[in-house]
């Protein structure tokens, strides 16, 4: 036997032996414990849930206290008022009474105990949504610009997102067996196990993908979903008012491990133009090439971006063409050139209005000053808007009749919710991942730290006359980069307890990576560091230059000098 056989990562073994993601989840669900064993822990992610423990109480006498994060997959972030209300009910009944709107247009519930896991997932399915493939080594929630418009283009890209989500969803019956039936349906399981892998999972096979896979669809004038951060990005190509296809980008991804030089964030590379009718098949080919050639030995370098870096985009494209069975055309010149966060009132063009509501860091909770949940309950109950989640952790309330516009604002004000027009520009363009206390990978604070920092930045920005300048500030509690910090104008990435790496020089448009300006900056010095950058920008920027463009132009060393000169 050859000794050269690659040593696969342990997760590959769990997947291989899982019988298409089933593992022993049904048995463990019945066991009288508050957590799952090692193998099932990995499989649970494919089902849309992560086992977590409250990091704040780790050192308490009772030890680790386990609960579950449950993520609902919502293509393009489109859901009904009833579905939104169902999630609010679930977070109150089984979760920690808060709900998180994510950076990928999904919803997360936190703090669900193991005893309520099955009921919660079943209830999400009852309302017509699913958690399957919200996490795990598969294609995750497919993003697209969520704006509701009467033009056909928005409808078409949102339909394409839904079609991709359906086409690339795992087809195993294990999800149903684990969560949606009263007891194990052994006969069906046997049927599935006896089939060949290509029959059960024709796209993924037995061991699914080497790592997570993300897809997003953008319009050239509106890159609100950050297309260049996606493993597979689609940029719409429109001619004479008709959507004729997409420019495909491949190999974007934010995660990195600072201690491992082999890891890096990357922007997607433009690969080829794909006609609308071929989108599903070419996307499938991209997935299959990554399935067969992505790294399964080292999960740190298993994302598509590492295969692209290794092969180059031409070799990758040739492999995709071979899998697809025909040559592809080169990308057209169409590229992203605008970004709309869809906040405030927007005319849908059908006599109705949409209202983009800024939800700070996507967290919905009821407190003494702001009652987010009560507010959404009243809006959903009275106005019944369709709801669309944005990639900036906010919500768009759609189909508001002109006569109901004052009513909506009245409900917001009644519950202490700031209308988007009153939210400062810096807060509106900021976002933070969950971080502590729930994320198991978090090194330091994120969502709980950023609002206070934004408070401290508002006055200096106003004093500098920069309070209307739009630039992105994105914070994460670790370098995994879930809030896409590496292409933001400013990225704040947790590096050690209470310390952040400060990145500058990205772009609002999301098409440029930033660079490290300062490392290991204590939390209490982050805002003064940023104010020094803002001051240098104010003093030395060129006409019409954005903050990100300025930082990218001058570079780290010059920026240091300009900050010192501006002090
Ligand atoms: Fe957790 Fe890190 Fe992702 Fe934040 S970036 S949610 S801390 S894994």
TrEMBL record:
InterPro entries: NiRdtase/SiRdtase_haem-b_fer, Nit/Sulf_reduc_fer-like_dom_sf, NO2/SO3_Rdtase_4Fe4S_dom, NO2/SO3_Rdtase_4Fe4S_prot, NO2/SO3_Rdtase_4Fe4S_sf, NO2/SO3_Rdtase_FeS/sirohaem_BS. Its cofactor is [4Fe-4S] cluster; siroheme. Keywords: 4Fe-4S, Heme, Iron, Iron-sulfur, Metal-binding, Oxidoreductase. GO terms for cellular component: sulfite reductase complex (NADPH). It is an enzyme of class 1 (oxidoreductase). One of its GO terms (biological process) is sulfate assimilation. One of its GO terms (molecular function) is metal ion binding. Residues 188-326, 439-563 form the Nitrite/sulphite reductase 4Fe-4S domain. Its EC number is 1.8.7.1. Residues 66-126, 347-414 form the Nitrite/Sulfite reductase ferredoxin-like domain. PROSITE patterns: NIR_SIR. It comes from the Bacteria. PANTHER family: SULFITE REDUCTASE [NADPH] SUBUNIT BETA (PTHR11493:SF47), SULFITE REDUCTASE [NADPH] SUBUNIT BETA-RELATED (PTHR11493). Belongs to the nitrite and sulfite reductase 4Fe-4S domain family. This is Sulfite reductase [ferredoxin]. It comes from Rosistilla carotiformis. The gene is sir.
């Amino acid at each position: 036997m050859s000794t050269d056989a690659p040593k696969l990562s342990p997760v590959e073994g769990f997947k291989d032996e899982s019988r298409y993601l089933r593992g022993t989840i049904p048995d463990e669900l019945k066991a009288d414990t508050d957590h799952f064993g090692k193998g099932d822990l990995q499989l649970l992610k494919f089902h849309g849930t992560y086992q977590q423990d409250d990091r704040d109480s780790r050192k308490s006498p009772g030890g680790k206290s386990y609960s579950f994060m449950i993520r609902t997959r919502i293509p393009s972030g489109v859901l009904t008022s009833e579905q939104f209300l169902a999630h609010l009910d679930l977070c109150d009944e089984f979760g920690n009474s808060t709900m998180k709107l994510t950076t990928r247009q999904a919803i997360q519930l936190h703090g669900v105990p193991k005893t309520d896991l099955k009921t919660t997932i079943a209830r999400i399915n009852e309302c017509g949504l699913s958690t399957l493939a919200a996490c795990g080594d598969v294609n995750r929630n497919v993003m697209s610009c969520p704006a509701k418009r009467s033009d056909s283009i928005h409808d078409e890209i949102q339909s394409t997102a839904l079609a991709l989500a359906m086409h690339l969803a795992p087809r195993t019956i294990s999800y149903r067996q684990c969560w949606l039936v009263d007891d194990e349906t052994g006969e069906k399981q046997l049927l599935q196990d006896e089939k060949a892998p290509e029959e059960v999972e024709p796209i993924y096979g037995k061991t699914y993908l080497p790592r997570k896979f993300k897809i997003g669809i953008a319009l050239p004038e509106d890159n609100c979903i950050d297309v260049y951060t996606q493993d597979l990005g689609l940029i719409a190509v429109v001619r004479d008012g008709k959507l004729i296809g997409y420019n495909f980008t491949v190999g974007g991804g934010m995660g990195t491990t600072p201690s491992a030089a082999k890891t890096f964030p990357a922007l997607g590379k433009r690969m080829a133009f794909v006609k609308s009718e071929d989108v599903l098949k070419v996307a499938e080919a991209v997935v299959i090439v990554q399935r067969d050639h992505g790294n399964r030995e080292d999960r740190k370098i298993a994302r598509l971006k590492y295969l692209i870096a290794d092969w180059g985009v031409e070799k990758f494209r040739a492999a995709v063409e071979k899998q697809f069975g025909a040559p592809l055309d080169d990308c057209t010149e169409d590229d992203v050139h605008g970004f709309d966060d869809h906040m405030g009132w927007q005319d849908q063009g059908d006599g109705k209005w949409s209202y983009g509501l800024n939800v700070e860091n996507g967290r919905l909770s009821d407190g003494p000053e702001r009652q987010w949940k009560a507010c959404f309950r009243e809006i959903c109950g009275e106005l019944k808007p369709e709801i669309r989640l944005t990639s900036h952790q906010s919500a768009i309330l759609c189909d508001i009749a002109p006569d109901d516009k004052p009513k909506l604002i009245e409900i917001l004000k009644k519950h202490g919710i700031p209308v988007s027009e009153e939210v400062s520009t810096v807060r509106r363009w900021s976002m933070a991942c969950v971080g502590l206390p729930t994320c198991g990978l978090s090194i330091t604070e994120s969502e709980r730290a950023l609002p206070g920092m934004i408070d401290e930045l508002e006055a200096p920005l106003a004093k500098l006359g920069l309070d209307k300048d739009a630039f992105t500030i994105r914070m994460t509690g670790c370098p995994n980069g879930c809030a896409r910090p590496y292409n933001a104008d400013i990225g704040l990435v947790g590096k050690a307890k209470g310390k952040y790496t400060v990145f500058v020089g990205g772009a609002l448009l999301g098409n440029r990576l930033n660079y490290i300006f300062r490392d290991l900056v204590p939390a209490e010095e982050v805002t003064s560091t940023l104010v020094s950058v803002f001051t240098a920008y104010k003093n030395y920027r060129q006409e019409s230059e954005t903050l990100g463009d300025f930082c990218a132009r001058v570079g780290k060393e010059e920026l240091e000098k300009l900050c010192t000169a501006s002090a």
